[in-house]
Amino acid sequence: MKMLDRLLVVLLLVGLWSCNKEYDPTPDYLEAVYPIESGKFRVYHVVDTIFETANSDLLEGQTYYKRELTGDTEEDLLGRDVHTMRIDVSPDTLGTPDNPSYNWSYRELWTQYADEDFYERIEGNTRFLVMRNPPYPNSTWDGNLFNNQNPQIYEFKNIDTTVTVQGNTYANCVFVEQQEFYRPVADTNGPIFIIEHAYEIYAPGIGMIKKYYKSLEAQNGVFTPESRILLEELVAHNFDI
């Protein structure tokens, strides 16, 4: 009987090791899907949609191109070496969808930082924890841990998925869900319903290839000015893959 017990323990340990082996995260893996390198850029096609306040009709979204250009390192207020990231925008009316041209104008400066635990993106003055290490499926963290916004739970929904963006297929991608809920809110002026859904997808060797953000707030069937849908999809980059 003791021999059988020992055998069961060994089999259990082997099974646990095998489960961990399937998702054996390494720092290099996360570094691959969030590369930070001076001189590298990503270009996204952006559709930013707002809603009417007088009725529930959808307005035509504002469309443009956005470029994220990684610059050199500098020291931030915490004494860390961070990479700058210049954000430029261009109208989407230039060129054709298959062969766009750009007329970049400066919008703002972001910064990026990575250590052994987290990857951060500081958008203006707002610091987000966009990814954590190790990248286990269904592991969670507070993306707003270091800013003054309400806690927001981010989650690795998938660390090895294949997606198609703008006609291009990317394998071994990381899917980070940032929020998803639907809730009614009691209000004396009528019922308010809020729908939230946001995620980002990252591809090895490139970084973020898609961003989706939907925040719909409706009162008595009328969308409020806070309602917004934002979609960013990668169309060009200069990373070596």
Could you characterize the architecture of this molecule?
It is a single chain. The chain has 241 residues and is mostly beta strands. The chain contains 2 helices and 13 strands, in the order ααβββββββββββββ. Strands 1, 2, 3, 4, 5, 6, 7, 8, 9, 10, 11, 12 and 13 form a 13-stranded antiparallel β-sheet that branches. The longest helix has 21 residues, at 2-22. The termini are far apart. Residues 1-23 have low confidence and may be disordered.
Short account of what is shown:
This protein has helices at residues 2-22, 27-33, and strands at residues 41-50, 62-75, 81-91, 105-114, 118-123, 126-132, 140-142, 153-165, 168-185, 192-203, 207-219, 222-223, 228-237. With 241 residues, the chain is mainly beta.
Distance between the termini: 56 Å
Q: Largest beta sheet, briefly?
A: 13 strands, antiparallel
Overall pLDDT score: 82
Structural class by secondary-structure content: mainly beta
Helix content: 10-25%
H/I helix tally: 2
Assign an overall shape.
globular
Set out the fold topology.
Elements: H1 2-22, H2 27-33, E1 41-50, E2 62-75, E3 81-91, E4 105-114, E5 118-123, E6 126-132, E7 140-142, E8 153-165, E9 168-185, E10 192-203, E11 207-219, E12 222-223, E13 228-237
Antiparallel strand pairs: 1-2, 1-13, 2-3, 3-4, 4-5, 5-6, 7-8, 8-9, 9-10, 10-11, 11-12, 11-13
